[in-house]
Amino acid sequence: MVHIRISDLEKYAHEFHVPIMLKDGIDFLTDYIKKNKIRNILEIGCAIGYSSIKMALVDSDIHITTIERDKDMYEQAIQNIEAFNLSDRIDVIFDDALNVNISGIYDLIFIDAAKSQYIKFFEKFKYNLDENGVIVTDNLEFHGLVKDSSNCSRNTKQLVNKIKKYVEFLKNNEEFETDFFSIGDGISISKIKK
Known about the structure:
The structure is a single chain. By secondary structure, this protein is α/β, with parallel strands linked by helices. The chain has a single domain, classed as 3-Layer(aba) Sandwich (Rossmann fold). It contains six helices and seven strands. It has a seven-stranded mixed beta sheet, sandwiched between helices. The chain is globular.
């Protein structure tokens, strides 16, 4: 069995420019999971398995289904999850999340994949949310560029505009109420309106 630490994953992500959650963002998320006794999690966007592993380590009763469409990332995630002995609690699906149909119901759905698809992910997977569950989204400040994208390339500006649209979509959503947190790279927590 390979001995691997969380810090090894952080180092790998830094070296190979793999987008993982910022430290205070993942701490905020894992604290939320602990405080709210979250047990079933659906994650859209696995990358190398960093956030799945961190979430699974909160409690031995936590089960996670995570989706990753990039083959290299998927394979890396499988290796990392095995190295942490978490293969029995983290299922990784290799596919584009928009092509995956999931029947399970989850306490928490975590959206951290292609930012341009956030609204589609939200609309598709909200049906998998427990009535008392939450949808958590990361990267809503996008390294501060959502506030000021004046010095960005055209592509980055387009992406920032899609994030802004998603934030508006959350603010004006009739079904969900959302709280926004300036933690990590900007996080939202959406709950079904009662």
